[in-house]
Amino acid sequence: MDIRRVVLIHPGREGPIWGRASGTPYTLMRLASLVPEEIPVEIWDENLAPVDQRLRQLGPHDLVGITSKTLAIESAERFSRIAHECGVQTVVVGGAHATLAPEDVAQWADVVVTGEAYRTWPEVIQDFIDDDLKPHYHDSEWCDLAGVAPITDRVIEMVDENHRYWTPMLEITRGCPRNCSFCTAIRVSGNKMRLRPVEEIVDEIERRRIKRFFLTDDNFGLAFRTHPEYVEDVFRALAKLSLHGWTTQAEILISEHPDLLALAREANLDKVFLGFETVNPANRRELSGKGEGSVSQYLKVIKKIHGYDIGVVGLFVVGFDHDTPQTVTDTWEFARSSGLDSMSMTILTPYPGTPFRQQLIEENRLMDKQWRYYDTAHLTFHPKNMTVQQLQESYDWFCRRAYSPLNIARRGVRVLTRHSPSRIPRKLFGSFSTDYGYRKTFEWRHVEGSRLLDAWGSG
Ligand code: B12
Ligand code: SF4
Predict the structure, then answer these.
(1) What is the pLDDT of residue 423?
(2) Which pLDDT score, from 0 to 100, does residue 440 have?
(3) Number of domains in the chain
(4) I need a surface site. Which of 38, 245, 325, 336 has the fewest CB within 10 A?
């Protein structure tokens, strides 16, 4: 089959904020970079512009690839339907949901790609050209990240991220050896932490000309313990670049590494998103060794990290079996008084492929909810120690307080006053943007039913 072009689609929800989409479509940037130079490639990000009308221009010689998390999979299905109506013969679907629930996606996609597609995606393209496509490609390798899918200059130019996006994404490590009962990281990116060579990271930052970024790493903080020399090399290399600041997901153990924290500051690490997950010590078992659910321990950690002029965003999950409405009140009390730079509360969500989902199925506690509700702001199962209404109301109560304009302003100003005056202009954006983003996410909590799907596109 002659190939006219490859079109890669990222279903969106939030849309642009003041003309820009929030995070760059990093997954698709890496995949687009694997498309041979002689084949035209396009990335359509629904957070930048609607894609439904554009789908109608597609035809049989276009190869369509869609990436999707669980919450967007119904949108992906709709895109696939429209594309097929217009004569497209091959819609390929990959990403977290396809990997965790391939049989669900296989009902409407022509090709399902599971696992990392560094090896299989080029194969899919070649098989399309050779008229030899298989319905399922599985990459089981957890390959070494050296030299894997470097972002090409053609893709950098096409995405134009410095003008069209607020936050560039970047991958430094991938995988997490922990196995928290509610998390899919181990199945999506493996239980071994893999590292990108430092010179490739620097080369990518320089060629993309990015000054700020958010790491896509599952748990960069764990590398402080598992690969301290590597982390040191990364920090020394980043310190030489004129970055405005960057952020990453981490865990509380980073506070045990003062030397690395000092280097992190030199490297312009702006803030860490710390998975405290719970302030209820009874939930300790769910954290696979990550913490004790102890508030006094958390307070010490925050103080230590702040001591290096690095911000802390607290991430909390509610809905564990030992949680009650009191857990939410306690979380707010802690979040309010702990000096956190920002905070996020998410509702525990039983994603396919997790031990938690399996437990709920066995206990007959899973609600019959469409995938669009798997956004961590909606409840999709029956909690054990509170009613559905209690959990939802407590969650709303927390978010209304956490993201009130007054509390956002207070925290933003507090963060700014922690910096020396010369650093303030560079820190202004980051001091308010996280809270603002969480406030926008919370607003989706009150978009219901078909409106939630309509919001992904015109339907
Ligand atoms: C970065 C990230 C984000 C960023 C996304 C920014 C962006 N613009 O991309 C932010 C912070 C915004 C985010 C938000 C959320 N995220 Co998130 N996120 C991640 C994370 C950590 C990395 C993803 C990534 O970019 N990796 C790097 C790229 C290169 O790799 P990749 O995406 O895995 O893609 C590879 C393969 O999957 C495959 N592939 C992917 N798509 C396709 C498509 C085709 C056609 C092919 C062939 C192959 C293919 O090939 C790629 C190369 O190997 C993952 C965890 C993980 N390890 O995957 C969670 C993850 C994807 N997120 C998750 C969740 C739940 C969310 C939120 C709902 C969380 C929340 N509470 O708000 C929101 C949803 C927001 C929304 N409206 O969509 C879950 C998804 C679970 C699920 N079943 O859907 C994950 C797996 C984390 C987890 N621990 O469970 N997230
Ligand atoms: S530590 Fe974080 S990334 Fe690792 S399994 Fe637990 S929640 Fe997932």
Answers:
(1) 76
(2) 82
(3) 2
(4) 38
